[in-house]
Design goal:
By secondary structure, the chain is α+β, with helices and mostly antiparallel strands. Helices cover 17% and strands 32% of the residues. A hairpin with a 2-residue loop joins strand 5 and strand 6. The N terminus is likely disordered.
Length: 212
């Protein structure tokens, strides 16, 4: 026969209720803070290693790039491929690395490059340049200026010869020499915004234009 022990009922110990509203508020604040920090981190990584935005302040690359064009630069492309003639690239200006320049690659390492009467020759062959313009009809003779007549030079290893498309109004390798490939920031590939400051309106027709 089993005996049943009886006694006063055992009461369960109850924990004091948590302030649910405060917990919920802290949780929401924490989520937004984490999301904000992650967004900043991703933006820094993308800007440093993937894509960076630049604005065109001058007319040295006319007509390809207009003053007020905003473009995106691919910063990782040259990890996987070499620079090609005709690429439009952003780089650190050799004489002041705090400034960024944008020009077109004209000659590669070991190429022979020269300018005769405003015409560019690479390896003794004239370059077909549908993108280049000459807005000044006058001819500047060397040694007063290398603009229109540039003596033949061989591009050293690890260097590039750069020129702006607006040939008569571009400060480029004709004046400051070769560009060290290590100074390249990336290849310009698309215009995402363009503002005409003279007419004070967007250039809708340029938005989304691929840079060639």
């Amino acid at each position: 026969m089993t005996e049943q022990v009886t006694g006063p009922p055992v009461q369960e110990r109850k924990e004091p209720p948590l302030p649910e509203r405060k917990v919920r508020e802290k949780s929401v604040i924490r989520q937004y803070t984490e999301a904000f920090l992650i967004a900043i981190l991703l933006a820094l990584v993308i800007r440093t290693f993937v894509v960076q935005a630049f604005k065109i302040p001058s007319g040295s690359m006319l007509p390809t790039l207009q003053i007020g064009d905003h473009l995106l630069v691919n910063k990782f492309l040259y990890w996987f491929t070499d620079t090609q003639r005709g690429d439009v690239i952003v780089f650190k200006f050799p004489q002041d690395e705090g400034r960024d320049f944008i020009k077109r690659v004209i000659a590669l390492p070991d190429d022979k490059v020269e300018v005769r009467g405003k015409r560019v020759y690479v390896n003794d062959k004239p370059v077909q340049e549908s993108y280049a313009v000459h807005l000044d009809p006058s001819m500047q003779e060397n040694p007063h200026s290398p603009r229109d007549n540039f003596s033949p030079v061989k591009v050293p290893a690890g260097q590039l010869f750069m020129m702006g498309d607006n040939r008569d109004y571009s400060m480029d390798s004709r004046f400051w020499g070769f560009l060290d490939i290590k100074k390249i920031k990336g290849k310009a590939f698309i215009i995402y915004w363009s503002w005409d400051r003279e007419r004070f309106r967007p250039r809708w027709e340029r938005i989304g234009k691929v840079i060639r």
